[in-house]
């Protein structure tokens, strides 16, 4: 669908920047260069060194890495850990807080080995540790953690094995905390510690009653399934006292929820946490750590608002609110300042990954030229043609109603066998042309009839992207999560089309119809027109948190290729890691096929065909080769060089 256009010469990079909001959600990391490419900025010694993502895509092509690709920037991960730690430190210095900040990364947010290893390595200088919620995550943390002063915080339900793993970590010198989430695990922890003769580090998770807005609000409040209520907290204290272990209770844990958009909710939650902290101290617990969990939000829409997919605060404000509130509340009670722990996951990893894909096909709903009227044309078709004669703003609703009515009549007659397919085709073409006329008429009107408000969107193009929503953007499907989506190149050209995106699964839910455009949420995204043979690349940004392992094998599209890039100070970059995505053989084995058996069965089939004289032995050999090559191939749409040419010839032959 065309959008009203300015002359292309007037189109500026600034307009593209505002349209796609890169300057709003991109933080210091992403912007657009004068050639119209999206660049990643690599600040170094007070200078920025932008690198075009198109340059990185060229590097992938040279290495025969096919789209879709999940592109990770190690530098961004490093920078977000530095920023979090250093901002807390600055605020602590500024307000004279008498203790330190020590963060942990919750592994569930992105468990991929590369990410966890990079955080362990880079985070060591800040003693940045891990939060784990299962035995598997515990093992991942223990095997990668570098600094022994870093914390390992164990949440979730813990069985004996989990507890023994943690106690062994303590023996190795790690600061491993068990956070008690239910009273049932308390006796096991006490019994195991005594049996192994190890003093555990204990925490309690308090159930928060502060109500939080945003999608994840339900994690907090009375109905939260996590944590101990005040009655249970007292029971835990008494139990530990009885077993002479109250001095092991060193940490209070409060997780308000994820993606908290409103800073006021964070402040409110911290006040409540401090009240628990102070009273547990008064009960005799040796508290020295206050862990505020996750919640630091990512501004996916770039709107800086208190709505769900945004946030109305900066990192500095977040740190100030936490440090100030703890200091003020505990000073009043005359209690020493604890170590401040947070478990930021989303904000730590969201920026590091970008999903890149190419557009495979575009379907537009442009009207074709009107079919010639024949002399004995059916009255219904004549009526439809007539509509063009009274198309004007005052009668636009009437035109729409009429078109709708005649089209439905034609469909009805077709069903009853009274008109043929050819006539129905003429009617549908007329109908489309009328809708386009209506759309053009509406564009001239100040106020449009309510019923017609969605008409323009319904005529938008469909761009088919080489990716699976279910594998790569599960939250877009499951919880309507918005991610910034931007063409990676051609941003110096005005985008003249409006489109929704469809993926290559054959599921009608495999589509994106919600975009942030010009600071508003819209159903269609402005895009550039794509010629045959032309590659067009789109990037889905801020996908580093929660997307990679939640994804599934819908239609058996597997993991995408993953490329990790490190940017150097001189504007060069290195491909530090490449992980090839799943092959067809891989995904089939995930769903319990035996690749070896599949190949044997296919071989038997073609051999039988040779016996029956359907194919020659030579043809058999070719078929087996092709079959085996497919088994080794990528699950996504692979473009062969020859195919691109062949396609364009075919298209020419049809038109
Ligand atoms: C999920 C989770 C986090 C991470 O929250 P983010 O909002 O992603 O930072 C932290 N702590 C706990 C206990 C969690 O369950």
UniProtKB/TrEMBL annotation:
EC number(s) given by UniProt: 4.1.1.19
Active site: 506
Pfam families linked to this entry: Arg_decarb_HB, Arg_decarbox_C, Orn_Arg_deC_N
Broadest EC class assigned to this enzyme: lyase
Domain Arginine decarboxylase helical bundle, first and last residues per copy: 375-453
GO biological process assignments: L-arginine catabolic process; spermidine biosynthetic process
Keywords: Decarboxylase, Lyase, Magnesium, Metal-binding, Polyamine biosynthesis, Pyridoxal phosphate, Spermidine biosynthesis
Molecular function terms, GO-annotated: arginine decarboxylase activity; metal ion binding
Keyword Metal-binding (UniProt): yes
Orn/DAP/Arg decarboxylase 2 N-terminal domain ranges (all copies): 83-350
The protein's name: Arginine decarboxylase
Biological source species: Saccharobesus litoralis
Lineage: Bacteria, Pseudomonadati, Pseudomonadota, Gammaproteobacteria, Alteromonadales
